[in-house]
Design brief:
With 698 residues, the protein is an alpha/beta fold. Helix content is 38%, strand content 18%. Among the domains are: 92 residues, 3-Layer(aba) Sandwich (Rossmann fold), CATH 3.40.50; 189 residues, Rossmann fold; 152 residues, Rossmann fold, CATH 3.40.50.300; 30 residues, no CATH class. The chain is built from 21 helices and 24 strands. The strands form four sheets. It has a seven-stranded parallel β-sheet with strand order 14-15-13-16-17-12-18, with helices on both faces. A six-stranded mixed β-sheet has the order 1-5-6-2-4-3. α4 packs across α18, α6 packs parallel to α7 and α18 packs across α19. The two termini are 36 Å apart. Keywords: ATP-binding, Cytoplasm, DNA damage, DNA repair, DNA-binding, Helicase, Hydrolase, Nucleotide-binding. One of its GO terms (molecular function) is damaged DNA binding.
Length: 698
Amino acid sequence: MRYKKRVSFHSSPLPPYRGDLNLLSKDIRAWLEDGYKISIVIPDPGQARRIQQLMMERNLEIDIKSSFNDSGISPLSIIIGDIGRGFIIEERKEVIISDRDIFRVYRTRKKKELSSFKEKIKNWNELKEGDYVVHIDYGIGKFKGLVTLEVMGKKGDYFQVNYKDSDRLYVPLSQLDRLHKYIGDSENPPPIYNLEGGQWELTKRRVEKATRELASSLLKLYSIRKAKPGYSFSPDTSWQLEFEASFPYQETPDQLNATYQVKKDMESPFPMDRLICGDSGYGKTEVAIRASFKAVMDNKQVAVLVPTTILADQHYRTFSQRMSRYPVRIEMLSRFQLPGEQKKIIQDLKEGKVDIVIGTHRLLQKDIKFKDLGLVIIDEEQRFGVIQKKKLKELRKTVDVLTLSATPIPRSLYMALMGIYRLSTISSPPLERQNVEIEVAEYNEEIIRQAILREISRGGQVFYLYNRVKDIQKIAQKIKRILPHINLCIAHGQMSSSKLEKTIIEFIHGKYDLLVCTSIIESGIDMPNVNTLIVENAEQFGLADLYQLRGRVGRGKRKGYAYFLFKPEKALTEQAKRRLQIIHQFKGPGSGLKIAMEDLHIRGAGNLLGKEQHGHIAAVGFTLYSQLLAEEIKKLKGEKVEPSFPFHIEVGVEARIPSSYVPYPDQRMQLYTRIGEIGNEDQLLEFKEELRDRFGPL
């Protein structure tokens, strides 16, 4: 590259402001009085608007410009860009300030977001040949794949569904919204009828009556929450904007949207009950931290409920670090505290001296009293027992509740789908996050040896999970026999709190290469240097547990590896096989909601609403049942329900994706589904660009 002109000048560094915006504004005024031109360089437009508002609150007029080349730059401007650190050029009377100078953060450079990150939640049920499907108008059949037919001289692609007595239905692409994958009774195949005869219509009418009755009972909880006015939190303060601006990473669009939805709920006059579904490490905790800060700004107390002492300790450290510059008192209640410490914290909670308390189920015991509780955050609700869930249900009637989960429990997910709970999804991964490589295999010591050696050779550490405490010492000895030179330690829930904490801290600090542990590591532990996970007897875990465990590795820029090892094939039950197949199938980012939906299928969707509804769900499938129930709920709430009619548009031209362009039927099916989801011209142009990139000119 040839430079037109070389410029030499002397510069001096800026002082670190460490988030002190009053000191920054004082320096800016002094520079302006001396005739300096000042540019604040911020990488994100949303962040830039927050900085602009904070400066204007300090009576500093400031514009936002897209680049340094923008004409008419005023003496004080915010420039959209990214620089490492700021500096002062005395001879040119110019000051450049970076966000790192203001907040002392080291921000991950923003890469171009790939459209592939925008996984569609409704694609969790991709169809495969042989699957049972439900057509709203014709009933349950077996999906046979994509076929090309010539109708009235025009070729077109159709989805073929087979019914009883060789009846066949060919569904045109314009009616794919009327076809769903069947989810119902996982033990027994669903009934398949003829296309004619009226049996399907009779079944639908019977289920519609049942959903009407269930809708009425479900709405009682909804009505209680609406009838009891909650606390309406104030709009964001300047401290809130300043606090959010100091976040040291680039927020994902889903993360920002979830934060907006939570704060909007908090400002409403009704108690919040929102479920945030997102993979481990996708930013759910930061959303919870911002909600907590907002509650504290209104002098309300916050309770953060977590399933394990280790996760409580991690959240305590994260919350404390984020809020260290503000007068917020954060405490932790778990077995890591001595009885005397617990007693003092409990008393201070009662007197309102503690703003945020983070703890295990200890927070639900009778001796815990709050002076003014405003927000309860539940992390991984599925890990709590029946008694704890009953107490949580009572809390939901009176205070704002925010639930965080990678794989929500079926009932919570269902209530969210029905509109009783509100649902936010964080499905876009953090920048530079790589997919975790998953291997499902029979137990093999050579696989174990190679996996451990590869991770240690790149300077990383390993989790080896074995979930039976009484045999865990033998497992550690076995690993020592396979690899005598490695340093390993053991952690499980039956250890004393002091020994467990000491072991975990030493492992985090790199004293050991490998941690032999139980599922105590399942929830939320963030150890970026641990990027290989080996699970022995993986067939004994539930689907949600397997997915949670997968999220323990690959949380940074380095690629993660997860090995799920099972007993010989003959020892596996059908459900265990299915669980292992699914965890291997859904490797992509943001698959937690898909996993939760598949969990519904394996368990039998009827179980979550009781025996009386099981037969109805089995008769029409979970998707149609949910649709009918949602319509009944809308009617009882007085909302308008649009009638659903089948229609077919004949455009007089051959409209299909030819096999010469996309040769594989599975790919064409996926593309047809994507076409049906396009909602505006921008999405259409983006899709066309993707087609050109993948398959060539259109």
